[in-house]
Structure formats: structure tokens, C-alpha cells
Amino acid sequence: MIRPCIAVWLLAASAAAQTTGAISGRIVDAQSSKPVGGATVVAASPSMPGEENARTDAQGEFEIGLLPPGVYTLNVQAEAHQSFTQDGLAVHAGRTIRVYLSIDPEKVTGAPFRFVQEPPVLPATSAQTGAVISREQLELIPYGRDERSFEPAAASAPGVLPRPLGLEILGSPASGTRYRIDGVDVTDPASNRQGRRLVQQFIQEVNVEGAALGASYGRVAGGVVQAITRSGGNELHGSAFLDWMPIELPRRTLRYNLAGGAELGGPLARDSLWFYGGFAPVLMATRSGVQTEYQYIGKLTLRPAQGQLLSFAAISDDFSLHYLGDLLDRTAQVEAMTGWHRQGSEADSLQARVQVAHLAELLGRHRFAWGVEGVRDSAGNSSRWYGGAFAEDTWSPVQTLFLDGGVRLERDELVGKTDFLPRVGVAWDFSGRGVSRAYAFVGRFFESPELASQRRTREHQLAAGVQSQIFRDVVAGLDYVHKDFRDAPDGRTSYDGATLSLAKPFSASSLLQASYTLSSLQGSGPVAADAPNVIKLDAAYAYEWDAKTTATLGTSLRVIEGSPWQATMDVRAGIVRALTNPYVLTVTADVLNLFDRERGGTPPLAGRFSARLSF
Fold first, then answer.
1. What is the pLDDT of residues 61-91, one digit of tens each?
2. Which among 138, 130, 128, 42 has a CA at the least distance from the CA of 86?
3. For the chain, does the N or the C end have fewer beta carbons within 10 angstroms?
């Protein structure tokens, strides 16, 4: 049963964009198929200091939460059973993967390792949808033109379209998209646009949270784009890098971009204290002048005890302190954060949040989560307080069905009213192995207005879909979203979109992300943002030329129906060469907008060269 909650009163970040993931599952006897209770499950990863563990209950169920993104190995030990190891489990921020494992009794003679046939890559326990752009994908495919920052990669996700004011997600206005770096909201409070960029060399992964967001997400009517930065580790690692775009045709004016820098991470004390740091000047020159931005990152990760993790980060004038821990005899998982985002010289945002989760059993398994949050935004002579609280329960009456219901209360001083936001979702793992899901969701959202205005978009959302790993880690999906809008800035009133997608994370030397979205955006008059047909294709392949040399090829294709149609294609070719151990040299050449189409505001053909020496 759930023990009494701790009375923790902290403020919270402006939207609960999760920075950690989880692994849950069920363990059964390989001979009898009966659940194995009391088994010890240990999770380990190069992305996490030390190890985290859990014990299975009488139904063989377990969950290990608060895991930093990375690739994990599970080791299972149970009385009267052989030990068991499952590796290659990719954990991403804001997602829970579910595994079904069987272990052999001691009397059975067999190999000490057994692998599930299909390592799960789907968040089978939730209705939430989105996309993850991994570090390998950032390195293989050219994202970004003037600057290789994290947000251009988000435009590869189905339903995401780049607009002059920012990224639009599944028909919602760009003003409803929030931007995060390691959980800190870096959206400009004065304009609701992206307020902080960060070069891809410092990024571990980019997460796009689109439809069916749970009650823990606030101040959002559209979605969340979050960058998770790299961290230290038990092994020293680092690199020096250079990006140079000297070619843009036709060259009507002098224009070039240059970015370079270095990063370094490793242990100060193995499995207990890690560091990571980087510095990158970013320069853009034209005939009218030179603009230079100095980006930096510094992180310390401390594991003072089992089940406790602290991290401090300074990222280009933004600061944050993050806590992850198991409390109350491991019956409460706590994630808390406080941060400060500085926007130029006049605007800033003070943020903090706490979220607590409990596991319980009552007519099935429950995961009850609650949290409080608050923000103080200021820009010039304008300021406001925002506060929110939420509670939600994920109930699993049987092992393949997950019902999520929650409610959120928000108070925005600028608007002067309290909003009640209910959200309900259901997910069914029809494969029974964590590699498929059918889902449905209904919920209500409000965006946070910019400080100069009290107008904000109200959104009612209905989402449904089905996704399945049709072959190993290849995921096929069909998703539908309907939205009703009120008070949208451009008069849009409704959106209907259906997406057919196919995705494969980087494995076996290749990756694929393809989608086709058919949509309709309605308004009180013509809506300029309407894009009825959108085709996206991102693909890459790495060919091992010899023991020391690998050749890579990646491409990004976009075909968007607008006024007029736009078709762009970017290509990256690269060579990865192992030098004297442990050094590796990577050289790439990008051709941006290969079709050289300038109509509709598309920038012209350009070339970029990059080099990176890493160890």
C-alpha cells in the first residue's frame, strides 16, 4: 500500500518535461511460466554512476525508475534459478520501456545468458507520443543550417513543422511549443520563442513530446522540445571540433558560418562523482557585420549513496540543480529541480519543481504520481508568477493494459484565473511482450501567454493510434490527432492529422525515420500554416571499409505542401578513421538544400565542412 506522502513544498519548472526514463517488466519461470517473486533486478549503464536495483513482487513485476538516458544492462538473480542478463535496452527521457523475461531453474542445463527476441523500443505503458533523436542520428544526418543546434533535429519528428516563429507541433501554434535543456525551460518569457540554443556536440539526445501529454505537463498547448546534454562517465572522453560553412550559392552577399570548440568528461571519483565541460564560439559573418555567441556547458554529477543522485549544471548563463532519489524505504521516487534561465540582459525565469511517484497494489498495480511547480518570469518592467499542481494514477489491472487518469490545476498571475485540466489515456500492449501498443487519449491544455499579452491558446485534444515493432527494432505506426482551438493568434479553430510512420533507431549500421502526414488545419479564414501533405525521410548507413575506417552517408528529405510546395534535401558524407589508440578522426561534408530551390523562402544551396578529433 502507499505510505503517507512526504510534505515536500518546492516550486517547479514550467512544464514537467521528464529528464529520466524507466524500465519495467515481468519475470517468469522458463519451465512453468509462473511469475518469479523476490527476484533481484539490477540495472547498470555507462550513463549512470553505480547501479540501481529492484525486487519483483508476487506477480513477478518490477520497475526501476529515475534512470538517466542511455543503454542499460539488466542482471536478474532469483533463488533456485540461474542468473540472467539482458543487455542493449535503450532508455530515453520521459519514456518507460517494458520487458518480459524468463529465467531457467537451477536444475536446467543451459547457457547462462538468454536474450529476449525483440528488445523493446516502444513506450508500451503510455499513450504519450513523440520522437527521440539519438546522438548517432545527430552525427550521421545534417540537421541545422546556420548553426548545428538541437532544435532543427526536432523537425524530423512526425507532425513537427519549422515556422518563422518557431516549431509547430501537430497543428498547434508555435507559441504553444516549450523548449527545455535538461529540464530547464529556456523559452523566452517575453515572446514565447526559443530562448537558448546549444550546439549538437554537447547533446546526448533530443526529445519531442507531442500528443497525449499527461497531467505532469503544464503551460503547453502543442508540445515540448527538450535537449538532454552529455555527462561525464567512468572513462575519460572528449573531443575538439570545427564546423565551417564557406559556400552559399548564389553568393549575393558575403556570408559564412563558423563554429568550433572542445568538450571533456570523465570521473573525479569512479561511480560517485563525474564531471563534464565544453566551450564553443559560434560565429556568423555578413557584409553588415559579425555576430559571435559563446556557448559553454559545465556539469557535476554526484552519487552520494545508493538510490541518490545530484547534478549541477551551468549552460550558457542558465543554471540548474537536479535531485533524483528513492525515499521512505524506497517507496517514493522523488525528482526535484530548481533552475534559472537568463534571456539577454532584461529577461529571466526562476524555476523549480518536485514530483513524487509511489507504487501500490489494489485490484492490479498502480503508479501514483503527484507534484507541485512554480515559476517567476520577468522581462523589463513586466513580471508574473505561475503555479501548478497535478495528480495522476497509472493503473494496470492486467499485465498488458495501462489506464492513466490525471488532473492538473494551474494559476497564472498574468491571466488571473485558475484552470482545471483533466487528462485520460489508455494503452494496450497487444503483443504481450512490450513491443506494441494501441492507445487513445483525451485532454485539455492551455499555453502560457507571453508577458506582453494575456491572450493564450486553449486546446482540447483527442488522440489515438497503433504502433508495433514489425521486425526487430523497426517500428511501424498509424496515429491520429484531433484538436479544437480557442483564442489562437492566427484564428485557427481545429486540426485533424493522420500520420503513417516507419522508424528504426541506429543499429546494424543503419537508421531510418520516415513519415507521411495528411492533415487539415481550419480557421475563421484561410490559415497560412496549413500543410495538408508532409513527407519526411531521414536515413543513414555506416559501411566498415576496413578495421580502422568507416564511411558514412546520411540524408534528410522534406516535401511540404504549402504555397508553393517546398522540397528540400540535405546530404552528409563522412569518413571515420581510427588513429593511434584512443584517438578517432571524423571528417564530414554536407550539401544543404541539394535541389537549390529558393521559392517560398527556402535558402539556397550551401556546403559545410566539419572535422572532429575525439577519444
1. 999 999 999 999 999 999 989 998 999 999 9
2. 42
3. N
Q: Which long-range contacts link 496-503 to residues 24+ away (Cβ below 8 Å)?
A: 496/520, 497/159, 497/170, 497/171, 499/158, 499/159, 501/158, 501/475, 501/476, 501/477, 502/474, 502/475, 502/476, 502/477, 503/131, 503/474, 503/475, 503/477
Strands 401-412 and 382-396: antiparallel
- Distance between CA 565 and CA 550 in Å, rounded? 37
Residue with cell 559545410: 608
β-strand pairing of 177-181 with 223-229: parallel
Query: Which residue in 225, 50, 40 sits closest to 132, CA to CA?
Result: 225
Residues 142 and 571 sit within 8 Å (Cβ to Cβ): yes
Report how far residue 250's alpha carbon sits from residue 593's, in angstroms, rounded to the nearest whole number. Answer: 12
Q: What is the rounded CA–CA span in Å between residue 141 and residue 556?
A: 7
For 270-307, where are the E strands, in sequence order?
A: 273-286, 289-305
How many angstroms from the chain centroid is the CA of residue 128? Answer: 12
Measured CA to CA in angstroms, residue 551 lies from 314, 421, 512, 573, 582 at distances of: 36, 50, 17, 8, 19
Q: Are 251 and 51 in contact (CB under 8 A)?
A: no
SS3 content of the chain, % helix, strand, coil (to 5): 5, 60, 35
Confidence band, pLDDT 50/70/90 cuts, at residue 9: very low
601: phi then psi, degrees, rounded to nearest 5: 85, 5
Sorted by sequence, the CB contacts under 8 Å of residue 505 that are 6+ apart come out as 90, 121, 132, 134, 136, 137, 473, 511
Region at 454 (left for phi over 0; alpha for psi -120 to 50; beta for the rest): alpha
The pLDDT score that the predictor gives to residue 249 is 64
For residues 433 and 415, give the distance between their C-alpha atoms in angstroms, rounded to a whole number.
Answer: 46
Dump the DSSP string for 110-168: --S----SS---S-TT----EEEEEHHHHHHS---SSS-BSHHHHTTSTTEEEETTEEE
Q: Which pTM does this prediction carry?
A: 0.93
Backbone φ and ψ of 587, nearest 5°: -125, 130
Report the distance separating Cα 396 and Cα 367, nearest Å. Answer: 9
**Bridge partners for 553 per DSSP:** 541, 573
Greatest Cα pair distance in the chain: 78
